[in-house]
Every structure is written in structure tokens, then in C-alpha cells.
Design brief:
By secondary structure, this protein is of the alpha+beta class. It has 3 domains: about 120 residues, Alpha-Beta Complex (Sufe protein. Chain: A), CATH 3.90.1010; about 45 residues, BFD-like [2Fe-2S]-binding domain (Arc Repressor Mutant, subunit A, Orthogonal Bundle), CATH 1.10.10; about 80 residues, Fe-S cluster assembly (FSCA) (GMP Synthetase, Chain A, domain 3), CATH 3.30.300. The chain contains 10 helices and 8 strands. The strands form 3 sheets. The protein has a 3-stranded antiparallel β-sheet. The protein has a 3-stranded mixed β-sheet with strand order 6-7-8. Strands 4-5 form a two-stranded antiparallel ribbon. β2 and β3 form a beta hairpin.
Length: about 300
């Protein structure tokens, strides 16, 4: 049994603002019945541009109903600019917290609000279409930008947390390698930003002299290139892929170009491109140099 706060139970048993606003100014729809959660949010603005009326319809669990109800109460009276700053963390805090396994319900509320505001501002369809955004989880139709947003807002650090907040990886699990790659990329970016902000101003150290500087990866003999790549794959890549039943094979090294082939579960994964760029290429660049390019067999 989930440990719900009194406020969650109140909004579940007595949901506020259920229904559809007549002639709404903005409509947002997210989720899908096939995925187990769906939410429609509609709002109407007053003459001053503030949210005068807002209603919701949802299909989901107690957390989904409570999160949607709480969101409508939170944004009444707000301008759209104020409402656009409401995050899923704000919704959960308003409810006195949610079980981590149910945090995706608060994310769904935030995304529905974003879609409704976008619908008002652009006139585009309220059903979010992310054609140019890589699809990471085909089971729950979760895109890369949604995962990145959840990571950044909630400071997520594990694949399990990403699943709790977005549902990505919660079914077949084949996208977990791609999720892990996104996490590693975001963690590295956060660490780099923190280091830059904390570093005192100082004179840049002199570069090593040509006599002592190590050879660039592209200038190494072929045999040493292969050994260097295999070492990086063994230490930085294969352990992550193995968790999800995948692997990667080195096919060729030419100049700074490394050609690989994915094996196991990674061989037919729809998120292979994310794994290639976000995990394999990043790991090889960290180990061998920023000019390293990773391509898959046939490219």
C-alpha cells in the first residue's frame, strides 16, 4: 500500500475542478490510455490575462487524480508566465510529497500545463508532437527532452529514478542503456558547469612542449589505436551495456574514426543512436580525444 499524505488522499477523494472548460483558451493533452495514464487540462483567461477557470479530466491512479486536482488549484489566478514556472516538484510539494514510484503523475500534470499554454500561444494542436525529439522509450512513448527535463528539475541520478519520474524503462527495459547514457551526459555537464563556476581566475598553464606531449590518438600506430579503443570500451562502455543484455564489437579504426557494431539487446534497440552518441562516443572521446568519431557498421 502506498504511503499517501493526507492532502493527496483529500484531493483523490474530493478532486477539485473536474471536467472541461467551455470554449477554453488553452487545451493540453498528454499521456495515453494504452500507457495507463492520460490527462486533459483546459483553462480560460480573464480580461487581465490571469487563469480564471481551469479543469481537468484524467485516467490514472490516486496520485494522477490528486496531482491534477492540486495543479488546478495552484494555478488559478496566475498569469501564464507565472503558471509556466510551476514544476512537478512544486506539485508534489503542494501535496505534501508523493511516493517516488508515483512522481511521474506530477510530471504528467506539468507537461499537460505546458501543452495547454503552448496551445494558447501558438494555436497548434494540444496533443504534443515531438517528431524532432528522439524517442527513447517506445513502450511509454517517452522522448529524450522529457527525460532531460525530469533529470534537471528533480536532480535525478539513477535509471530507477528516471523510470519513477517518467515511466521510461518501466516495461521491456531495453531503453535503460539509452537512459543511462543521458544520465551520464547530464551528470558530466552539471559537473563541468560547477567546476567552471567554482574555479578562480588564473593564468592558463603552459601547454607541454612538443618533445614531451603525448601523441594524439589519430597519430598512434594502428595496433596501439585498437588497444586504446578496446581498453576504453572494456572500462567505460561494456559494463553499462551488459546490464541490459547488450554489448559492442570493435570493427575498424581509421584515423579518428571508430566503427562498431552493437550486439545482444542493443543490436535492434530503437535507442541505439542515443547509446552510440551519448555513451560510446562520449566514453571514447574522454579517453582518446575530442576528435574521435564513432560510427556504426554500415555507416
Amino acid at each position: 500500500m502506498w504511503d499517501y499524505s493526507d492532502k493527496v488522499l483529500d484531493h483523490f477523494h474530493h478532486p477539485r475542478n473536474v471536467g472541461v472548460v467551455e470554449n477554453p483558451d488553452g487545451t493540453g493533452e498528454v499521456g495515453a490510455l494504452a500507457c495507463g495514464d492520460a490527462l486533459k487540462l483546459t483553462f480560460k483567461l480573464d480580461k487581465d490575462g490571469r487563469i480564471a477557470d481551469v479543469k481537468f479530466q484524467t485516467f490514472g491512479c490516486a496520485s494522477a487524480i490528486a496531482s491534477s486536482s492540486a495543479l488546478t488549484e495552484m494555478i488559478k489566478g496566475m498569469t501564464l508566465e507565472e503558471a509556466s514556472k510551476v514544476t512537478n516538484a512544486d506539485i508534489a510539494a503542494y501535496l505534501g510529497g508523493l511516493p517516488e514510484q508515483k512522481m511521474h503523475c506530477s510530471v504528467m500534470g506539468m507537461e499537460a500545463l505546458e501543452a495547454a499554454i503552448a496551445n494558447y500561444r501558438t494555436g497548434d494542436t494540444s496533443v504534443r508532437e515531438l517528431k524532432d525529439d528522439p524517442l527513447v522509450c517506445t513502450c511509454f512513448n517517452v522522448h529524450e527532452s522529457e527525460i532531460v527535463q525530469a533529470i534537471r528539475i528533480n536532480k535525478l541520478t539513477t535509471v530507477e529514478q528516471v523510470t519513477n519520474y517518467t515511466k521510461a524503462g518501466g516495461a521491456c527495459g531495453r531503453c535503460k542503456g539509452a537512459i543511462r547514457a543521458i544520465l551520464e551526459r547530464e551528470t558530466a555537464a552539471t559537473a563541468a558547469a560547477a567546476t567552471t563556476a567554482a574555479a578562480p581566475a588564473q593564468t592558463q598553464a603552459a601547454a607541454p612542449s612538443p618533445a614531451t606531449a603525448p601523441k594524439a590518438f589519430k597519430d598512434l600506430p594502428p595496433a596501439k589505436k585498437v588497444l586504446a579503443v578496446e581498453k576504453a570500451l572494456d572500462e567505460k562502455v561494456r559494463p553499462s551495456l551488459a546490464i541490459d543484455g547488450g554489448d559492442v564489437e570493435l570493427l575498424d579504426v581509421s584515423g579518428s574514426k571508430v566503427q562498431v557494431r552493437f550486439l545482444g539487446h542493443c543490436a535492434h534497440c530503437v535507442a541505439a543512436r542515443l547509446t552510440q552518441d551519448g555513451l560510446v562516443q562520449k566514453a571514447l572521446r574522454d579517453a582518446l580525444g575530442d576528435d574521435t568519431i564513432v560510427v556504426e557498421a554500415g555507416e
